[in-house]
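sry for the spam today, last one i promise. struct tokens for design, 237 residues
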């Protein structure tokens, strides 16, 4: 949906990747489970593996198996990567409305960024495969900064773009995305179709929780001025 705005409430839209723009959660969870199995460990359940999507891989493995030895982490990561890259994503794996939304946002003058739990090599490969490398002004990955929910990757994006937190909107499908934005008083928007459920997202006081990317520009058009108490979480979706 295209919305003509007289004044943008934000200068940059920062997106999570897996579960927000790309429908990849089931593939990631399956590869995580197979990675544990290949390392000789009892795998987590698919639900357990889905729950940690968004964290950096090391932090995700440590969350699933507290106290795990470093060499096992390395073996799981290697097995995971081998399986993950066996499946090449296409633009058909993007959630409905994503490309139209990104094109509309760019035409309206928004800068676009990614804050992801993926590794830099993995993110670069996926963007090249989808021919989307030039779509985003800044991409920050978990292996080159602190993992979510620590807000450092958001702070680094803002620093690179020379923007304060109030001029940015974080959009994601997990409480890790919501939590890191909330930590620096950045507006945040949940998407209900990803990894974490609506109630977990709404607990972090997003401006809204949408069911499809087609709703994004409507939400931005209605975004309250900073300092206001009104949120849109129960109005849309």
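last one done:
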């Amino acid at each position: 949906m295209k919305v003509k705005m007289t004044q943008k409430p934000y200068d940059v839209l920062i997106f999570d990747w897996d579960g927000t723009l790309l429908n990849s959660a089931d593939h990631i969870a399956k590869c995580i489970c197979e990675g544990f199995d290949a390392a000789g460990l009892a795998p987590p359940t698919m639900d357990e593996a889905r729950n940690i999507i968004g964290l950096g891989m090391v932090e995700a493995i440590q969350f699933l198996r507290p106290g795990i030895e470093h060499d096992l982490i390395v073996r799981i990561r290697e097995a995971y990567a081998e399986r993950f890259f066996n499946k090449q994503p296409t633009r058909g794996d993007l959630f409905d409305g994503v490309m139209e939304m990104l094109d509309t946002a760019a035409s309206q003058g928004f800068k676009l960024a990614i804050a992801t739990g993926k590794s830099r090599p993995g993110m670069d490969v996926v963007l090249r495969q989808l021919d989307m490398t030039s779509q985003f002004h800044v991409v920050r990955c978990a292996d080159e900064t602190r993992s979510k929910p620590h807000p450092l990757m958001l702070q680094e994006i803002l620093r690179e773009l020379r923007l304060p937190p109030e001029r940015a909107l974080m959009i994601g499908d997990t409480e890790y995305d919501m939590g890191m934005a909330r930590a620096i008083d950045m507006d945040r928007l949940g998407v209900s179709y990803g990894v974490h459920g609506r109630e977990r997202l709404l607990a972090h006081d997003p401006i809204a929780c949408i069911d499809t990317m087609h709703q994004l520009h409507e939400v931005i058009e209605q975004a309250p001025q900073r300092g206001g108490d009104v949120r849109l979480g129960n109005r849309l979706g």
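Residues 12-23+93-222 form a domain with the Rossmann fold fold (CATH 3.40.50.1000). ok im logging off now
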